[in-house]
Amino acid sequence: MKFTAQQIANILEGDVVGNPEEEVSKLSKIEEGEKGSLTFLSNPKYNSYLYTTEASVTIVNKSLELEKDVSTTLIKVENAYESFSKLLAFYNEVKNNKTGRENPHFVSDSAQVGEDEYIGAFAYIGNNVKIGDRVKIYPNAYIGDNVTIGNNVTIFSGAKIYSETQIGNDCTIHANSVIGSDGFGFVPNEQGELNKVPQTGNVIIEDNVDIGSGCSIDRATLGSTIIRKGVKLDNQIQIAHNVEIGKNTVIAAQTGIAGSTKVGEYCMIGGQVGISGHLTLGNNLKIQAQSGISKSLKDNEVVQGSPAFGYSDFNKSYVYFRNLPKIASVVNKLEKEFNAQNEKL
């Protein structure tokens, strides 16, 4: 796909400085720009590359003042970074604008599928499934019985959506994620053998949720595991049965949340965080990477460590931890001096 500088400027409501008919067909970093590519400049740290880049078109802030001539055609906008992000979203929309049904695929006679759908090869859609408009289901995806999917949802290749799951509007589920698998529930009998507890609940995913690749979200034992509106999950995250994630919370890769824990709204949770079960975590939390959460947290806390404690206290303690050999040496020296003084006395 090729676009002219003027076409891009029209999308971004920007002004062209240079050749409005300059064409681009790919994206690049400004320092790696080449003929036919589009790039952007928003960080002053990279200003020098504007005068050396070979990119055909560069998006810049209107406030930028040139120090010398440039060979690249400029598109001036209010916020270059925001505009480039908008353009990336547009590019993805055009690139992924697939419609129709590839063969072979299976759609149950009792399923309801909306308009402008895309169903890839080897996709499976089960009984009584309800799918909204402009939904894209990529090859080898599985949609179990009684699943409900809203409008403008994309489910990438290999994702598995178990029965009874409810997915809202404008959601994205990336490859190989599993939504609605059984929660980890077992109870020992008199012989010490572990008997499985039936997992009869479901998973509810509200609007505008993004789920990365390789995530597992377990169905509830009873009731629902709930991912609230606007939540963003990175890759390889485990969310156990009956967990609830508050709206607009962001969770980084390899985090695990044990059963029945409630996470608040607008939280930021770093990578490889482990959270115990049956906890209540407040709103606006910041949990640093590799922290272990074993107790409930109040609103606005910032924690780190395993088990986690206050971020500021952790940093102060870590200074002493790194200096433990020096501190031990000083203590040993003082102990020797003290013992020598005692012997003299």
Explain the layout of strands and helices.
Elements: E1 3-4, H1 5-12, E2 15-17, E3 23-24, E4 26-27, E5 37-41, E6 57-61, E7 73-77, H2 80-95, E8 100-101, E9 106-107, E10 112-113, E11 118-119, E12 124-125, E13 130-131, E14 136-137, E15 142-143, E16 148-149, E17 154-155, E18 160-161, E19 166-167, E20 172-173, E21 178-181, E22 186-188, E23 194-196, E24 202-205, E25 210-211, E26 216-218, E27 224-227, E28 232-233, E29 238-239, E30 244-245, E31 250-251, E32 256-257, E33 262-263, E34 268-269, E35 274-275, E36 280-281, E37 286-287, E38 292-293, E39 302-305, E40 308-310, H3 311-322, H4 324-344
Parallel strand pairs: 4-5, 5-6, 6-7, 8-11, 9-12, 10-13, 11-14, 12-15, 13-16, 14-17, 15-18, 16-19, 17-20, 18-21, 19-24, 20-25, 21-26, 24-27, 25-28, 26-29, 27-30, 28-31, 29-32, 30-33, 31-34, 32-35, 33-36, 34-37, 35-38, 37-39
Antiparallel strand pairs: 1-3, 2-7, 22-23, 39-40
